[in-house]
Amino acid sequence: MNKANIVTLTLMLLSLGLYAQYVASPPEYIKALTSNWEGERLKDGRPKVSDALLKRLKAINVEEAWGFLRSKGYHNQYEGGWKMVHDDRVMTGRVLTAQYMPLRPDFDKVVRIQGAKEDRDTIGGSNSWPIDILQPGDVYVADGYGRIIDGTLIGSNLGNAIYANSRNGFIFDAGVRDLAGLVEIENFNGWFRGDDPSYLQQEMLTSINAPIRIGRAIVLPGDAVLANRYGVVFIPAYLLGDLVISSEVTNLRDQFGFQRLKEKKYTAGQIDTEWTDAIRKDFVDWLGKQPDSQLPMTRKELNDYLKEHKYL
Q1: I need a labelling partner for 255 at 20 to 30 A (CA). Which of 60, 238, 282, 292 fits?
Q2: Is 19 helix (H, G, I), strand (E, B) or coil?
Q3: Mean pLDDT, residues 262-291 taken together
């Protein structure tokens, strides 16, 4: 049996058996979901992409990330149309997912019983459960099926708890309440559908760290996320390194092209089409004159990329 069939069988068995017994997906299930990732993992099984890459991701524009993912066959990783706590900031991080559904008492009872077995707080609302397990660098991503009125997943109290645990923010296909209080949380940000003074009711948590849908995007636990005023992109962890350096080189190509157009060395048509060998050599020479401190990547990373993509 080949690797692809083994992974498929594992997913089927977990989804039909083990997975159904948990509120939060077990590490084995998350590892099967993200089997292309070969690096370090968090204790819960999610890929642990590096903080350094997440920092570099902040400088990548949404269109570049979207285009790279489409070139790799990932056509359903972007969602737009958000409101933001602070619309002048960029957020990146590792995704922790949660799914909410309209309340069904018999199902909710099962979830709460299982939550107790998993040592979760059964006194308060279950919407605190994902927040309780956030780790530094996490982004809390929740499918609240777009509900705003009576679908406000957090107010300022839970917002403070999110930031205290993750030092990051949230992305909710749902509503929030007490937006004025959320704005006051220093270095905190969030993407949401709307704000409303109502509190969460007739809604229930159904899973943590399982695959979810956010608008037109599919999201897996451990994805990297890039979020800014232009939208949100969810990036499979195993593609993050390639996406970052590819986008960084594209930005350097743009800088080179803009400079050469201002100098009138090339026409717009020459820059906008596939480059000739002479322009590619000029670009490599131009890169060699840039100070290392001005490059977003190390010189070795850049040279390795140029060799791999036949610039050198």
Answers
A1: 238
A2: helix
A3: 97
